[in-house]
Structure prediction request, 342 residues.
Amino acid sequence: MKPRFLSLLTAFILAAGLSACSNDTPQTSSENDINSSSQQQTNAEGFYVDGTKLYDANGNEFIMRGINHAHTWFKNDLDMALEGIENTGANTVRIVLSDGGQWQKDSVEEVKSIVDKCIERKMIAVLEVHDATGIDDIASLEAAADYWVEIKDALIGNEKYVILNIANEWTGTWDSVLWQEGYTKVIPEIRDAGIKNTILVDAGGWGQYGKSIEDSGKAVFESDPLKNTMFAVHMYGTAGKNQNTIKSNLDGVRNQNLCVIVGEFGYTHTDGDVDEEYILKYCQEQGIGYIAWSWKGNGGGVEYLDLADDWLGQGLSSDWGEVVINGKNGIKETSKVCSVFE
Prediction:
């Protein structure tokens, strides 16, 4: 998401306008393939993707039910925010970080501390760099990749607990070619540094252009020597506006045999209304992960995207927080703690 704290996302709206042992019961070949792969990778170093599914280090499927937290702008509120998010039952928290390009850089020591605190609370940490949001030049994406290499000590050894979301919503234009060029360049560089965590790549077009993954996700996946990359579509008034659009964005990716989640979503936004109830429903029916935006701290006219009224979450917003956390198909009803914590 482009920073909620700075503007009404005029550029975002414009970009959006331009357009995710034996058994008596017979098994299908695809089921056998999945079971074989899962058995082979049980007790793996960390998370891994197999087709459209994400598996944890124990070989169990993991479906994210999480919340975004804008840490880099609210560093002093981390402990309260993580406690509040933990109390929702979320099994995942996506953490906003900065590589220093636009905001104060989050040091390797800070990131290590964040990861440790997430592990203590039995939540998987999805770490993302926000500075390249909506920027169309590859240099900004390379800066994010360089940052991960710089702080790799916070990642290496935490493959069971940390997923690496390279850059938030890199590219504002709806351009699958540029998106592919950037990610196929930086993913091998990240792997060359010895980073083995599962990689998460946001769609182009401020995260809402799911077709960028449908068009070029295979090439991006194949550029990863470990074949351990998954994808995210962000759903606001463009990608999440109705049932057909939501299904199209998610199914378009899965039809390429790629793993996808809804990495951000709201219930409304400056580019239109969102069918948040259907996002929750369809993700639950299909076993797709979701991470709602965001815990607290939204500003610049989008304060309505706050899930919580206070950092500890003692009060939830009625239109948004109550739906995501306590509603049907919400976090409390559907979230399961990752088996690596059991």
